[in-house]
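Hi,

I'm pasting everything inline rather than attaching a file, because the server keeps stripping attachments. The sequence lines come first, and each chain or strand is labelled.
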Amino acid sequence: MSPGELIIELFLMPLVAFVVGLGMVLMYRRIGARIQRRVGPPFFQPIYDIIKLYGKHTQISHGLIHEIGIIMAVGGYVAAETLLPVPGMSGLADKGGVVTLAYVMMIPSLGLALGVGQCANPNGSIGISRALTAMLAYDIPFILVIFGAAYVYGTTNLADIIAIQQQQGPGGWGIVQMPLLALAALLSLQGIMGKQPFEIYIAPAEIATGPMVEMSGKFMGGLFVMQCFQLYTVGVLYTTLFLGGGEYWLTFLPKIFSVVAIPMMIAFVFPRYRTEDVIRLLWKWPVLIALTGLAVVLR
Amino acid sequence: MSNELENIPIRQELEVLQSGQKRTNPLANVFDGLVKFCRSRSMFMLHYCTGCGAIELPPAMTSRFDMERLGIQPMVTPRQADILLITGYVSIKTLKRIILTYEQMGSPKYVIGICSCTVNGGMYWQSYATAKVLRDYLPVDVYIAGCMPRPEAVISGLRELMEDISSGRAESWKKYYQHYDYYLGNQQKLFGEDWQTPTDIIAEARHYDLMTEHTLGEHTALLEKHQKPLEALEMRLSVKDKQKV
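And the predicted assembly:
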């Protein structure tokens, strides 16, 4: 690939991710509305929200680290997008691989922690400590799943993983080869996306949206953008590991949207667990399922 | 109570004083129009449930009337909110909290007074502990009268606010800066002359270039006389030795 093409792809991949992510946010809110028997927001609602937040007159900054934290939160996911191969574009996927991706996906949480720390709001501190604890909880099954998938495919290169699955057809997809690992990954996706029942760190009614409590204007807008990237990233990663990736956008988009839709549908019918229960649950069931899946795979 | 508090002008119709001139770049005007439209279509509301009118908000938000199809959704902190809904009578103690909340919200911000109690005191018109007319203390964009207004009325009020925002009429948040002396005077009349909030409104007015001859006056002078610098609260954990934890 020539450097010119690479630069175009590095620019296009986050842009596509943002646009698709906006669609996912819309889907998330529409699913919630339909489950609660409402109409839901209009089609362009996510983009209205973001433009409005960036257009506020008051932009309360709590200092340099606050701003850097938000840049890290968005930038971490932008970096993750360049490592995720999509139909027609592979970006840095050859150089990176799934282990790098797992590291890069932790940057947003850490950036958020930095930014919230500067705000010095007790609700924010409580929220971010819960968020990092939740990260500890969902990352264990997630890493186990990545390990198992890398063992089955014999590579950590995401482009190769897609190629292997597409050679073998739907029978060779990860979800058929290692159903237990796919199930464990689905459960930890719920945690990665921060949706109910693992949503205690946001908890609007108790700690006033936790990490976001002091975020206003463009900072909140940055977090809305981050949410778009987050939904897209988890959808694409799951599709790449277990659903054969994408050959064409026409087959790829339904896959990633349906992957993201499953945790959302679960989310709206659940209340939330306490932090210690989140850890207990995530370290018990997904880890148990993932370990069994590993045993099956390694046999 | 000192003399300064006696001579607050009787309720006056406050006007938003237009200071800014229209931008010359046509593209900038298109951009401003887009931002205005998005502002009107995406409103995060902080509902400060002071009274009985709050009971009409859940049906307006949930499946029967569904505010979200208008882009209105609840938010829980003043930092993220655009509209402050005051639903019902405002006691003097509550009013302090409302003013603190209002001053923490990011501009542009809008206030909606729901129920008759915020218009003229409603059934609490002779109460000694109730602030009768909300717009003496805060600039109110839309009043929704009724005791209580039904969700249809609430939504029609919100739609009116949406139209005002997209056409640029809902700029009463500027009034708070431009006529701060008047609002502060009314607040001091209720809370005493040593009333102060953590937010420095005068500095903000300077920042937004909204200083007028009505921003400063005798009441802000009184505020400066009594103002104490804000200090961070000391955080201390004390555990008694003998007590088992």
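Chain A has one domain: 3-298.

If the labels don't parse on your end, tell me and I'll reformat.
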